[in-house]
Amino acid sequence: MKRYARPISSIALLLVIVICFSGCGIVDFTRSIFHKENTDVNVNLGDTQVNNNVTNNNQNVTGTLDVTPPSTQAHTHTPVTNNNSNNGGSNNTTRPNNNTQQNTQNNTTTAPVVTEPITDEEIEELSVKELQDLLFATKDPNTAGKILQIAGFEYDEEQGIYYSQMNPLQRKFGFNRVYDMAAPLAGMIYSTKRIEFEYDGREWMVQIWKGQYGITSGAEIGLYNRDPERNFQYDCADDEDLIEMQFDFYNQDELVFSRGPEKHWWLTGFKVFHAGVPILIDLDMTLTFTDKQMAQAFVNSLKKSITSDFSSLMDPITYRKEGSTVYIHW
User: Fold this and answer.
1) What are the distances in angstroms from CA 18 to CA 154, 183, 186, 212, 323?
2) What is the DSSP letter of 39?
């Protein structure tokens, strides 16, 4: 089961985005945002009457309040009270004296405010960024936002991208090469580099990815380690092993989005409906390791990887090290 964890999580993210942006999905979700419960209030108030009974010198005075039903436009009705005498239709009223008891009941009826739901035509005019904001950029997550979080991802409203959480379910399953072998089955076509090195009695791996992930393009930086006895499965780095990561994502020399800097074990970013050929995507990455020794061990392995990998001729990697920080351009 563990060997399929990463492809399954990637498929889950793709399904969430596809469902939310499908014709019926986007309409239903945006309607659920704008079509509040107050639109279900019964606004047929044409027959409502309010009676004011006034006892004045043993005379009964009855007033009637007629409320006009609200129109289809969203607005608030101001109640109007008309007091008419039933004594021959006269508009004259008798001022009560000090010996007369007057009991007056004031009833105020206010029509509810009606908010019109967003229409299909208005939805079609929204941009992809605006649609994403409606679905995911809410303080109280709706169904789409909750599904996205369950899949282990969050939405960045400012940049319009998706990124992985610090503690998604995927963190429990670690990583191995089978995940990359299964990626094309999930529609993920990317380039990847593995930099494996030894430090502090453990085997470490920094892996980087860039390319097309279904209907999104994006990039990843992952940090993993394992005991020397294990030769296949890596564990995701624990909290005490996190390093500071950052990258800028360029597509055909145009900056699309940025991630970090922050301490992480899996720094990612994905732009929906954005096409990216791996060789045309550039990453400017910054990795700050625990100390200079760890950074040097990483650089030594990176150098070997560059010289032994034929793909580096077509898509070269350059780097420089300053103390415990390594700057990489791919």
Assistant:
1) 16, 18, 13, 15, 44
2) G
